[in-house]
Amino acid sequence: xxxxxxxxxxxxxxxxxxxxxxxxxxxxxxxxxxxxxxxxxxxxxxxxxxxxxxxxxxxxxxxxxxxxxxxxxxxxxxxxxxxxxxxxxxxxxxxxxxxxxxxxxxxxxxxxxxxxxxxxxxxxxxxxxxxxxxxxxxxxxxxxxxxxxxxxxxxxxxxxxxx
Length: 163
Known about the structure:
Blueprint: H1 7-40, H2 70-80, H3 91-100, E1 102-104, E2 113-117, E3 129-134, H4 137-160
Antiparallel strand pairs: 1-2, 2-3
């Protein structure tokens, strides 16, 4: 018999699922772009085996290895996507908030707060608050479902391209 998760354990598990979904989405979008590039390249041009790479190895720049940000990957994907395969670009805000936001609480019995600040725009020592989210279980569940739906949309495209 398994012991029910404590609220903080549920919270950590849901955040982990969201981050895993975002990482999976990024890799899937890269794989779709790589397939598109490979289809346009001469036979035998595209060959990758990511396992076995070591720090210091050099690899060709392509869709899997370039430094494109998630926003760029989504935009490239959506240009070639068919209806129902588009990935919502606003998912980048979630990714950026989790990557660059601050998470805290003043009361351990309450949900954590996620706050993200904007860049310094020359406001004489001030920055804008651009995201404030109370990370309730329902909010985290909704983000998990959003990221899962984005993956499913990209998977529809991947299946069509036979990836």
